[in-house]
């Protein structure tokens, strides 16, 4: 079961940093479920759409976010499972500033696209060990370092544009894991980020604070957690 919340720093330390600098509040949401998620098939940068469960999850997380501070913008991966989730959130929050970016896409999984996860692990166990961060995937796939650099760089740009504001970012499992680990290398997020889980960051001037990771409080209301498939860094 995904962690409800994981804090990378004591609240007092975070508050102190925010008092010194104007940081952007970045709410990162993993997209809703697809049929490929449910079947444990590696999606990477393939483009399946949300299934009915995924659309219901998106509506639930959108309703939650609509009750919180209104975001200045919603940013999203341009892949359909993320962009559909983002549109549902933007509508619920009354946000017209909706931006789609390839930089927020999932890890490119090369020749592993379309494989069932256990088969992919048997073929290339070194790719799923999480130790070889520079290990690129055959067929044009990315290494974890390449994925991290792409996503972190984009969020730094977003944070610079939205100092002192809240923004929502909709992306993918492995992408979100890398963001969490950039902010807090000890964060226990591997495989624990369910569909539409929320991670909360404060970002600005090179500083990253992870205040919350894997928050799924909204999903417990609809029984979505019983069959949830956590982010495995590949099928997300």
Model description:
The structure is a single chain. The protein is an alpha/beta fold and 236 residues long. Helix content is 33%, strand content 16%. The chain has helices spanning 11-20, 35-38, 52-66, 80-93, 117-123, 144-161, 173-183, and strands spanning 24-30, 73-77, 98-101, 166-171, 198-204, 207-215. Strands 3-2-4-1-5-6 form a six-stranded mixed β-sheet, with helices on both faces. A hairpin with a 2-residue loop joins strand 5 and strand 6 (207-215). It is globular and about 45 Å long. The two termini are 16 Å apart. The model is unreliable at 1-8, 10-20 and 227-235 (pLDDT under 50).
User: Would you count the extended β strands for me?
Assistant: 6
- Report strand %: 15-25%
- Sketch the major β-sheet: 6 strands, mixed
The helix count comes to 7
Sheet with the most strands: spatial strand order:
3-2-4-1-5-6
Structural class: alpha/beta
Order of helices and strands: HEHHEHEHHEHEE
Radius of gyration: 16 Å
Q: Identify the overall geometry.
A: globular
Report helical residue fraction. 25-40%
Amino- and carboxy-terminal Cα gap: 16 Å
Poorly predicted sequence stretches spanning 5 or more consecutive residues: 1-8, 10-20, 227-235
Let me know the average pLDDT: 89
List keywords for this structure.
alpha/beta; six-stranded mixed beta sheet
Quick description:
With 236 residues, this protein is of the alpha/beta class. The protein contains 7 helices and 6 strands. A 6-stranded mixed sheet has the order 3-2-4-1-5-6, sandwiched between helices.
